Amino acid sequence: MSYLEYQVKYVPSGLRKVLYLHWPLILLVTAVAAIGVLMLTSVAGGDMSRWAEPQMVRFGLGFTLMIAAAMIPLWFWRNMAGVAYAVALVLLILVEFFGVAGKGAVRWIDIGFMQLQPSELMKIAIVMVLAAYYDWLPLDRTSRPLWLIPPLVLILVPVALVLRQPDLGTALLLLTGGGAMMFLAGVHWAYFATLIGGGVAAVVAVFESRGTPWQLLQDYQYRRIDTFLNPENDPLGAGYHITQAKIALGSGGVTGKGFMQGTQSRLNFLPEKHTDFIFNTLAEEFGFLGGITLLILYGLIIFFCIVTALRQSARFAQLMILGVAMTFFLYFAINMAMVMGLAPVVGVPLPLVSYGGSAMLVLLMAFGLVQSAHVHRPR
Amino acid sequence: MRRPEKELERASRIVTRRGLVMGGLQLGLVGVLGWRMQSMQVGQAEEFRLLAEENRINLRLLPPDRGLIFDRNGVKLAENAQNYRIVIIREDAGDVDETLAALARLIPVDPAAIERAKEEMARRSAFAPVPIMERVPWEHVARVTVNTPSLPGIHAEVGLSRLYPRGQDMAHVVGYVGPVSDFDMTRGYLAEDDDPLLREIPRFQVGKTGVEARLEHTLRGSAGTARIEINAAGRVMRELGRDEGVPGRDLQLTVDSDLQRYLQIRLEGESASCVVMDLEDGDIRAIGSAPSFDPNLFVRGISVADWRMLADDKYRPLASKAVQDAYPPGSTFKMITALAALEAGEIDSEETVYCPGHLDVADLRFHCWRRGGHGNMNLHDSMTQSCDIYYYDIGQRVGIDAIGAMARRLGLGVQHDVPLSAVSDGIAPDREWKRRTRGEDWRIGDTVNASIGQGYVLASPLQLAVMTARIATGLEIKPRLVRSIDGIPQPSGRGESLGLNENHLRRIRDSMFAVSNHSRGTAYGSRIDAPEMRMSGKTGTSQVRRITPEERRAGVVSNEDLPWERRDHALFVGYAPYDNPRYAISVVVQHGGGGSAAAAPIARDILLQALYGGTPPLDAYPSAHRGRIQTQQQEMEQRAAARAASMRDRA
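Above: the input entities. Below: the structure tokens describing the complete assembly.
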């Protein structure tokens, strides 16, 4: 879609755009963020200033960014895709040299008012750049091996950088997110079948390599896998966190123990209760009803995104929206699977709920792009 | 770049198709998450809730207050005194060594206590208070409190600990408590006891000896519980609920602590024991063993030096000789031999036996204590003068089985049910006993020895007191040490009639009266002169060695020339008043020499003290002795006052 095309179709202009925003999506996002603020208040023992207030400030900032992004025509964002990717990549490389360490990994760079996690930025940049790439690429070349190389490089370079930090969760997210983009763009099924076959082989290789000189993963990553597979074997050691997290979740029952009444999180049995494991506090205090409500809200966000994407006629918009939806889905699916003991603990936050600035800002930006596509879609 | 419309449509179709595939996959995964959530929170909720409760709630035991022990007049014999102790909390202390060193500069601290505290700290969590010292004097507590800022993690706390206000007077009766040991719980008397208090409370105090140990379960009470919410680190967050335990039950003993004190002081200097029984209900009015020790030392944790002193003393202060020692009763056994013969109809009381000073039985020569012999002896005279030949003769005639049976009937050779440590059975031998325990046949010489309470016969001072009580009343009196538990009276020890012929008993009693009131009686020198209080009794001198024929030829060596361990035991049993008996007594002075010289005066003094309920008037004593007795009484009163004062100070 070019500037000319854009001009000839009817699109709202100026402040009238506000009326054309996808308001249900905005409401859903805000509702999820509100649940987050509520839970952050609870895990701080009622102290809003500890996590809830900074989180609200970030949400406010992110919300503003989202609306601002929505106001800007989509073609601008498509043209910015390469720049965004380049910036994210440079920042990711800078982490290597100027990164701030935390929890055994170097993931952040200090940009004055906050600590930025470039790998979060990369999650959205990679969606943009791949959408732009396939928008540019003629359809009949999509599955040609030569034209698979550029997207693979675009995906694997940041994945490699993130793995060095080390951050297995984000690397997985980038890899899956990028792969999903390629799948959506129409890359032939056979490639994915091969990839999955190769993936299974890789998993075997990872396990087989353990303890040998060419060991593929770090020891702590192996321990996490062990813990995932058999948390009960070592309930006081490596499996402690996941065991306690499951107890918190399960003990919530149908209706939960009540706001700020969750004993597992109140008494610090629950690990990382304000970040990765915040869902367990929600499930403990508001029970199955609380947990399923959040899951439904997430599902609705995905649903509205897919519906919006299918109503688009521009390829970039379609791919970008579905990519954002996929990334968002991967966030909460991996996090929930992890805290319910269905997946290894890899360190993925619960989107819009977990305490953390970068993910919040980046996700709201991404929804800003979705809104932009929605507002500026040809009618 | 323009794209053909067709290509655009195809591209859009592919994206739509693949987008729907992706959406379907996502929906499926969301379904899996929802199902998992449902199965954990609905299906397994109970299971997880239980785990969460287990995580959260700890039951903390609240030790119950141990029951108090009183004497018959309500005097406290064992109480729970508040005391200050100094504890350290590791996580607050920072540098533990430095803090303890600072404490040691401030107040005197036993280095061993510091080592103990460090060991305990290593075993317990960082926030658990570990006691360093107990029973800290007030000025030291004040010094620690004032210096709190420089002693991080160190606090003074108030705790309860056992105190025995009557100290050594009651040591062998009341016993003492101490921290429960592994031995107690594995092989000791608490092996069957699964009370969580024993395992959960550090240094929980249990009875170690005496009433404290034997009535442990009455005195202990049951633990209360506090439901405590703890966090992941084990720190107490708050108390959720509290169930106060049941305090231990209070005991009232039958012992009269003033009489007991007199008894202990009177026995002082000897290795001796004495039992005073009330003939009305079998109450043990006093039961003592000398020398004694201060039970409070054990509660505090006795020092090695103190322990060695007590353990190495040849007078055995730790032994409760009144119940756990058994001695050959010697001549005090003669009543049993005589009663057995009378009841069997083998003799009548006027029948005489000639005593030439010795008797030959089956190639062995048995001697009377008087080498020249007593001449013709009837029951009365043989008892009064303690002739041995008379009993050798009647003993052989009635036979050991009848003698053993009579001994058991009168309370020898059977265990009496008193809540004291290591209560001895003694031995009332007969043929069957010897076969069973020695695998040998009974020989006639054994009967001869047994008939005068030597040989195999053994009796504890308590058993001798019971025997005397039964002879004095003709009733099967049982000793009673506990008068009431929590105010509920315990059954009286006054038993049914023994079924003995009253005439026979009267003969025996008359003879015993003569022992201390007839001028030729062996205890005449220790008689009571007050007409309404006169005492009946029997002396005994039991050999602890065999006198070889060579020694006998060389002339009997007097006790004073022998080393202490080889001297005779001196015994006396008696009761008073002779015509309306109220108290029975037995006294054994280990290696004390002759019964009439060493044991009878003690028995007389203690009986008088019991009869008059305090210091007796001088005219209860024979006029010739009054001067000496007056001096003795004054001295005793001074010692009792001094002892009372020293115990008050300590408490």
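Note for the figure: Residues 75-186 of chain A form one domain.
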